[in-house]
From TrEMBL:
CDD domains found in the cross-reference section: CESA_like
UniProt-recorded name of the protein: Glycosyl transferase
Residues annotated as transmembrane: 285-308, 315-332, 338-360
InterPro entries: Glyco_trans_2-like (IPR001173), Glyco_trans_2_hopen-assoc_HpnB (IPR017832), Nucleotide-diphossugar_trans (IPR029044)
Domain of life: Bacteria
Origin species: Gluconobacter potus
Length: 380
């Protein structure tokens, strides 16, 4: 029985390593490219709630984009109480690209961020032509001057409806070095980038820090209002676009980065727990299946390697080493030493515990909490 379970774990890792879209690979990463000829109109929408610490740097990086086409930057100040909107309005804007909107009160049925994005979307559609694009980004993301040109060039060259990138995340504190690379790794395991790009796969995903969306694709799905209650807005948007016949790209970014710090393990815990149970559609059955699956592929191999005997121990050790090897490209991308792959099962246990914590929060009525707002379900 135990040996059979050990073989199941090894078989799972062989499948994940060879047949699961090569999720463990380092790329793809967009190269910096010049603005395409006949550059289309682009409107950038930045929803912001209490982002005084980062909004100046974020908007400045967008206003200084080296983009030859028409560029509009729209900040939606989502009822901030820390002067976010005032900071934005005071920024130098020599090319008259910036518009600051004071967000309206959120109506029932909308998540807070998507209501802000929707208000920005309505303004953006007045700024771009029928073949233009909307860039959705967050208020804690910085953009290199050539970032927008590279995104548009990728969209035009490959005829893509949605181009998204996982921006570079902070990895300086002890907690960040321990947990953040694993976040990127686990995300790619859930949403293998090659399968997102494949028209033959139903998997769709995006990363909210950078989403360039073709106007026609947005209109085809019915606009942002089509996903108004979604709490995992980026992947929900990607799923709508792909189901409508759209073509997607998701990769890693070398031209955009987050300045949001995760100073301690508590910060990372909240990041995971905020939406982990939402990913499981609030299903206790899916939660149980997830716990069993994670225990089988992460905890069982290391337990057998440490405490097993004979063939069970050898299979467990082989499985553990294989799982560590798949983490190496991610560590190299973050510039971290390879020994940090050793505690990966422990990191997986932390993520599993945070997922359980997310479910407990939901059943206690706490729900999803972000920026001093709480959502107990998708339509609250």
């Amino acid at each position: 029985m135990l040996f059979g379970t050990a073989l199941t774990s090894l078989g799972a890792w062989i499948y994940l390593s060879l047949f699961h879209g090569k999720f463990w690979q380092k790329g793809p990463i967009l190269a910096q490219k010049p603005t395409p000829v006949c550059a289309p109109d682009v409107a950038v929408v930045v929803p912001a709630r209490d982002e005084a610490d980062s909004i100046r740097e974020c908007l400045t990086s967008l206003l200084e984009q080296d983009y030859d086409g028409k560029l509009s930057v729209i900040l939606v100040d989502d009822e901030s109480t820390d002067g976010t909107g005032d900071i934005a309005r005071a920024l130098p804007d020599p090319h008259h690209r910036l518009t600051v909107i004071s967000g309206q009160k959120r109506p029932a049925g909308w998540s807070g961020k998507l209501w802000a994005v929707h208000q920005g979307e309505q303004e953006a559609l007045t700024r771009i032509g029928p073949y233009g694009y909307i860039l959705l980004t967050d208020a804690d993301i910085m953009h290199a001057p050539g970032h927008l040109s590279s995104l548009v060039a990728k969209a035009r060259e490959d005829d893509l409806d949605l181009v998204s990138e996982m921006v570079a995340l902070n990895c300086e504190s002890t907690a960040e070095r321990f947990l953040v690379p694993a976040f990127v790794y686990f995300f790619a395991m859930l949403y293998p980038f090659s399968r997102i790009a494949s028209e033959h796969s139903r998997i769709a995903g995006a990363a909210g820090g950078t989403i360039l969306l073709r106007r026609r694709a947005l209109e085809r799905i019915g606009g942002i209002s089509a996903l108004r209650g979604a709490l995992i807005d980026d992947c929900t948007l990607a799923a709508h676009v792909k189901r409508s016949g759209g073509r997607l790209y998701l990769g890693h970014s070398a031209l955009a980065w987050s300045v949001r710090p995760y100073r301690g393990m508590k910060d990372v815990w909240h990041m995971i727990a905020r939406t982990a149970y939402v990913q499981l559609r609030y299903s206790p059955v899916l939660l149980l299946a997830t716990i069993i699956g994670m225990a089988t592929i992460w905890l069982l191999p290391v337990a057998l390697a440490l405490f097993g005997k004979g063939r069970e121990r050898r299979v467990g050790l082989l499985t553990y080493l294989l799982s560590c090897l798949t983490f190496v490209p991610t560590l190299r991308r973050f510039g971290l030493p390879l020994w940090r792959a050793i505690p990966l099962p422990l990191v997986a246990a932390f993520y599993m515990a945070a997922t359980i914590g997310s479910a407990l929060d939901h059943h206690r009525g706490v729900g999803v909490r972000w920026k001093n707002r709480s959502y107990t379900d998708e339509t609250s």
